[in-house]
Design brief:
- The protein is of the alpha/beta class.
- It is 41% helix and 13% strand.
- The chain has 16 helices and ten strands.
- It has helices at 4-14, 20-24, 47-69, 96-121, 128-132, 155-158, 163-176, 198-211, 228-232, 240-244, 250-253, 273-277, 280-292, 308-315, 330-342, 380-389, and strands at 27-30, 39-42, 139-144, 186-191, 216-220, 255-257, 261-264, 295-299, 318-324, 347-355.
- The protein has an eight-stranded mixed beta sheet with strand order 3-10-9-4-8-5-7-6, sandwiched between helices. Strands 1-2 form a two-stranded antiparallel sheet.
- Strand 1 and strand 2 form a beta hairpin.
- Helix 1 crosses helix 3 and helix 7 (163-176) crosses helix 8 (198-211).
- The longest helix has 26 residues, at 96-121.
- It is rod-shaped.
- Mean pLDDT is 86; it is low at 376-398.
């Protein structure tokens, strides 16, 4: 049906200006099962032209069969057109309804495929669900991401009624119920990699614990890149390292920060931080501080770059790992926890930091609408009441 012997005579009669191979791309033939019929289909942008071509090809096919099969003027095979083609009333393509349905189906499949591929390839930790894939350790707190955090790292002090400040108070409360039987007093705060927010978490938690009435001492245990005193606006020329090597007395380097919080800076940066932090002098210092204070908090370096945090966690009652959302990958957290497990350190829990505030993994605060009235914008009624309070002869409102 699509050979040159059939199509070329049709092209010549209709003066199509096409080659047989070009016309063959628009012609197809099928045989319905259980019949001796041949159905001819022709695709063309003109319905009249499609019907004309189908009829011409059908007629030429019968003639070609007769010519090919004839022997001495007679042919044992006979082909006859039993039903001529009619001009179609509707196009077979395009079909808007079908195309839209196919597009929707392909869109859904593509979307699922992209989501699955992203889930497989993107191993960054963005939510608590990602953490649960790595460890069964308890998540004892969650702090949302704040673009302005670098400008006011001590949010508990800068904006005590903010949702982030309330999140640190929730963390403080949760810590009271972590390992309640042993009641750990010396806590090491660390992370897997730099930039996850362990230092700001340490500082704000220390402030909230001190605000609750507990006597707290916080140590700048990062002897490589100390940041704690910078965030707290304190001097750190002499500190922990000077005490450990016997150059200074502990009472002379402790710096008060408020009523119940005392800070011990890193001091001089030593050439051997790991050995110094794992020394007997450090162990004796921690025992001394435990006797003096209700809680000892240590801001330690990240676990993967250096071993300092693992050394400190071994001396302390437990370690808390800060997990920065979109900062580290699942394998980073797994290796960090494995480091603590290797030294037989007690992991008290994890704190999720920099959690997204929008999107499917958003971390939602409920405290924003429950600020004290003094922090809220004054209403018309409250302004009027304030004016009345200032009138002579009226008692002040309490």
């Amino acid at each position: 049906m699509t050979t040159r012997a059939v199509l070329q005579p049709v092209i010549d009669r209709l003066d199509l200006g096409l080659s047989a191979s070009e016309l063959a791309k628009s012609v197809s033939a099928t045989v319905p099962p259980g019949t001796v019929l041949i159905d001819i289909s022709v695709l063309d942008t003109s319905p009249e032209q499609a019907a004309t071509l189908a009829n011409e090809i059908g007629g030429q096919f019968t003639q070609t069969v007769h010519d090919l099969e004839s022997v001495d003027g007679s042919s044992p095979v006979k082909a006859t057109v039993v039903e001529p083609a009619e001009v179609p009333q509707s196009p077979v393509s395009p079909s808007p309804a079908r195309n839209v349905a196919v597009a929707i189906a392909l869109g859904i499949v593509s979307g699922l495929g992209v989501a699955l591929l992203k889930d497989i390839l993107d191993t960054r930790i963005t939510s608590e669900r990602d953490v649960s894939r790595v460890t069964a350790a308890t998540i004892i707190g969650g702090i949302a991401f704040d673009r302005e955090a670098s400008k006011h790292p001590l949010i508990v002090q800068a904006d005590p009624h903010s949702p982030r400040a309330e999140a640190f108070r929730t963390l403080r409360t949760n810590l009271q119920f972590v390992d309640a039987a042993e009641r750990p007093r010396t806590l090491v705060f660390t992370s897997s990699m730099p930039g996850e927010g362990k230092t700001t978490t340490t500082a704000n938690l220390a402030l909230t614990m001190a605000a609750s009435g507990s006597s707290v001492v916080v140590l700048e245990g990062d002897l490589r890149r100390p940041r704690l005193l910078d965030y707290m606006g304190m001097e750190g020329a002499v500190g922990l390292t000077n005490v450990l090597i016997g150059e200074a007395d502990i009472e002379d380097v402790l710096q008060p920060f408020g009523e119940s919080l005392v800070v011990l800076g890193a001091g001089t940066i030593p050439p051997n931080p790991s050995e110094l932090l794992g020394s007997q002098a450090m162990a004796h210092l921690l025992r001394y501080l435990e006797e003096r204070f209700d809680c000892v908090i240590i801001d330690a370096p990240p676990l993967l770059p250096v071993t300092d945090a693992a050394v400190l966690a071994k001396l302390a009652d437990g370690a808390i790992v800060v997990v920065g959302s979109k900062i580290i990958k699942r394998d980073h957290l797994a290796r960090a926890l494995q480091t603590l497990e290797t030294v037989d350190a007690h992991v008290l829990g994890l704190v999720m930091n920099r959690l997204p505030v929008t999107g499917p993994d958003a971390y939602t605060y409920y405290g924003e609408g429950y600020r004290p009235e003094s922090d809220a914008a004054p209403t018309r009624k409250s302004r009027k009441a304030a004016q009345e309070d200032r009138r002579p002869g009226l008692l002040s409102r309490k």
